[in-house]
Write a structure and sequence with these properties.
This protein is mostly helical. It contains 8 helices and no strands. The protein has one domain.
Length: 208
Amino acid sequence: MNSNLVADLFQSILQTSWLEWLAVVAGITSVWYSKKESSWVYPTGLVNTIIYTWLSFKYQLPGEGLVNFYYTAMSLYGWYNWSRKDLTQKPIIQISYSGKQEWIQQILFFIVIYIILYGSLTGLKEYFFEGAIPWADALASAAAFTGMWLMTQKKVESWYWWILTNITSMPLYFVKGLRITALYYLILLLLAFAGLYSWKEKVKKTHA
């Protein structure tokens, strides 16, 4: 069984298009920059999200396609927000934790987005995307919507939502035959844990 899985993965590597490879490399680079709190997270991320918007619709993952389109728009906003500096040339937006009210807001935001996406994807499945998986696609997408917004505000909690996004995205792309992308989300999951630790340490140093 393990040998078949390795052979299948090797075959997927050979069949992966240069466009998907470019998206994977750009995505990993982007997450690495976000871990470092560098504004380069956004220009590299734009390459990734534009490509994956197209790939997601091609492989009947409309929820993931929508979230990547959202990523593209939010990357432009985040790039602007992270680049803003005060008179001493220090970034205006600093890494911080969400307060109680912000936690309530993000959870409610997640629930509302999930309900909207699930209902929409269920309808799209019936008429346009027969291969869609509404509940899983909506779960991954709603978590990503929440995580991306919090990332533009440099909130530590954004990494929790990225962890949820990556966990739910792996099986989605795997069953669609995009094995390299599924592996890519596994790498992003590991980077998300590293990013969470890094941002927590930066908050500690700031308060110290």
